């Protein structure tokens, strides 16, 4: 099939028929298999010989170009029967295809016979900046918007590349608020290109995990790496297989990487583990394997990395000189896997290499070299879709493009990579534990949608939810308080404080919450907004803690205040910090001077 889907085979790659015109900044469809468009006679341009639909016409027959570029047929329509229109009842459109316009020509010469010159003005040239912006939505955007049937053909092909897992949650591909995407790199040894790495019997654990938080206004993003050897709790998680749903029991005090693969856990289990740990609601996940690193680095023709000293790691087979190098394929995979020859030799040192590699790859993907190269974009789209396993909410090329376009609004200088702060585990030196003193404020900062980058955030234009709501009087505030992670007795302490200090006599102790929460949450109905405003003001709750339901509540239905792990005491503000906590490792994705030490 050719780029217009007309049933031509010719072993022509549809992507190769799109030609970039540097004068217009757009891609044009070239139907000639040669290196240049077919030469046309001077004057009005007719169709290239032999390119019409249907059976090719014999030389000199109807439809043969006349001197000066005409077709020899009035109106430019020629049927196979030689008449000016297609034969009645024929199901094949035999009209000549219009010739590709010569956009380099500044003007059109008048056609033979004294006709008036074309009134169509040449399109203005696009600036270099606009050319880049045209492609910033990513490789998938290219295949969908490049044009016509060729895009449909590639769209269908890319759809077939994508693997999906139903994790029991299906969120829209694009939404107005902040977006949280869980990126998982699995160490599965099955599948193409994955053999020969690490433990042959691995079930595919969460070897590399990054929580990507994109701000509501799309001005910034935080990529939070989670150490695989961190000891944590894994909650119960439902999995779907062969049409049946099975709940896998949770575990306490186990390595984070066992949230995937172990006991047949799927990405939904890692999803729920991260939500419980951070208090953030995840929207989507993307999972890739070893081969993805090789294929994507090849697709962009290599990624630049830097080493402060020569690296010679016999375990990962990485051999690099000091200074900057370009890695791709096997060497790129070795770079993101190495750890014994850099830093402390731990997984934390490897995380920093991965952050350097991913930052450089993002810069490469957004560069003019990639954004204006059809072969690179095509290869990147193929590699990305073949490498990914995603949730059903983004399980098609169209949905991935919508998401890519939305997220591409983030400037690379406002993307920050950080690592969840941890401490050595005194019970097992091969593992680490969460550093609560630093991790708590960091998670709180991200939940509040604050940027870790040092650049200024865009000022929010505000929404209807941001308008000030009048506060209800104390005797009208009705709330049930439950303990979902605070100290023992926190719920009763809060109720006593509300009744005695704020005269909120309709507050009651609802006991322990059914699930633990990292962040305190106030659930209220739309018609309880005034009560929520009063309670949030008294308790010092941030906007991120307020969760409005969809339906109004009855006159005696209370709001629900669940005290989370961040609860400090009634009336004590839990407003999130606006600066990155001291001691939290972080780097800017636009920093090109980072070298592995």
From TrEMBL:
Residues 41-58 have a biased composition (Low complexity). The keyword Kinase does not apply. Residues 118-130 have a biased composition (Basic residues). Residues 1-11, 90-105, 450-479 have a biased composition (Basic and acidic residues). It holds the Pfam family LytR_C. Residues 205-367 form the Cell envelope-related transcriptional attenuator domain. Residues 60-87 have a biased composition (Gly residues). The chain crosses the membrane at residues 132-155. The keyword Transmembrane applies. Residues 1-130, 450-488, 562-597 are annotated as: Disordered. Keywords: Membrane, Transmembrane, Transmembrane helix. Residues 477-567 form the LytR/CpsA/Psr regulator C-terminal domain. Belongs to the LytR/CpsA/Psr (LCP) family. This is LCP family protein. It comes from Streptomyces chrestomyceticus. The lineage of its organism: Bacteria, Bacillati, Actinomycetota, Actinomycetes, Kitasatosporales.
